[in-house]
């Protein structure tokens, strides 16, 4: 496809105008929204209002007057449509890792006598690390099997199945419904990490029988660096599960200042400490960028963008790189990985030319497609520049081979 042909696809794209909701620097093709979403245009003024008018002028009255105290619930409610859950099943809190700790611990304690947290090898590291630490504390075990062996590994000893819905490396998608059904059949619970799903693929947490889930606020949800995460607990489980990190914000009456813990009802009990108000203001701006846009349109565009990239890269550079994501677009999330033995250097050379993706060890170049702001011309342009860099071996320079702290 030529850039002119891609331009015509953009002109006919029903989501084209959503790009206006973001600040994107000129001359940059940003394909890393799966790691840090772009800045929503409304975020700086939302942050300024929260800081200057609310914190600055209203001071502590803001907790009531500007409803800061309700933001973890109010902002979570706006996510309901995006993840296919009910508003009263969601809460914004902490980081993904901490939320995962809370839900895994709650799940293990809700299935006494069962000794296994089941996950898969090469799951996102934090998911495995959290499970390993928790297993030591609760005297249970983490069983990490090959990704395609999870279904068969669910048994009567499984307390909880902990999986990432869209794999952060390959972008392959787990069949949520099948895993949930098998887990329930065996009497186990499921915790899904939706970090690479929320805002990129159409989800129906309720309809597919999910028990528990967490997800990241700073990727497709564009909540800003270090944005708080979200927690989902199916309504049917909310009374049964307890928050292992009890704190005053999850108390039934935080301002009664009593000595003994009594959990709030519903999702509020999953709060621990004071919410990060400034970060919540930015996350709210991010979630608002989805207003008026259907998740089915987002998923449809995501598949078109990622498939176009696969086709264009393979047509131009098929003998140099290897597709390391599923070939079937319905089996992928919203990013694509190509392997190259010098993937790190190639990615640095791409970044130097304004095409921003990222690198995941050992040899994977990762390219994320964010339907709200990625254009078809970006996809074709990125494939063209990648082909030039590979053909000319532009990447083969010492300056592209020194590893930075963050890759
Ligand atoms: C990005 C990501 C996280 C992030 O966890 P934090 O605690 O917010 O740093 C967790 N899980 C997965 C699968 C991710 O992709």
Describe this structure in words.
47% of the residues are buried. The chain has helices at 3-11, 43-58, 62-65, 71-77, 80-83, 96-110, 125-138, 150-153, 176-185, 277-288, 295-317, 343-352, 376-392; strands at 22-23, 29-30, 39-40, 90-93, 116-120, 141-145, 158-164, 189-193, 212-215, 229-233, 322-323, 335-339, 355-356, 358-360, 364-368. Helix 1 (3-11) packs antiparallel against helix 13, helix 2 (43-58) packs antiparallel against helix 10 and helix 11 (295-317) runs parallel beside helix 13. It has two domains: 3-40 and 294-401, Alpha-Beta Complex (Aspartate Aminotransferase, domain 1); 45-288, Aspartate Aminotransferase, domain 2 (3-Layer(aba) Sandwich). The chain is of the alpha/beta class and 407 residues long. The strands form four sheets. Strands 4-10-9-8-7-5-6 form a seven-stranded mixed sheet, sandwiched between helices. Strands 11-12-15-14 form a four-stranded antiparallel sheet. Helices cover 36% and strands 14% of the residues. It binds pyridoxal-5'-phosphate. Residues 95-97, 124, 126-127, 164, 168, 193, 195-196, 216, 229 line the site of pyridoxal-5'-phosphate. Pyridoxal-5'-phosphate binds next to helix 6 and helix 7.
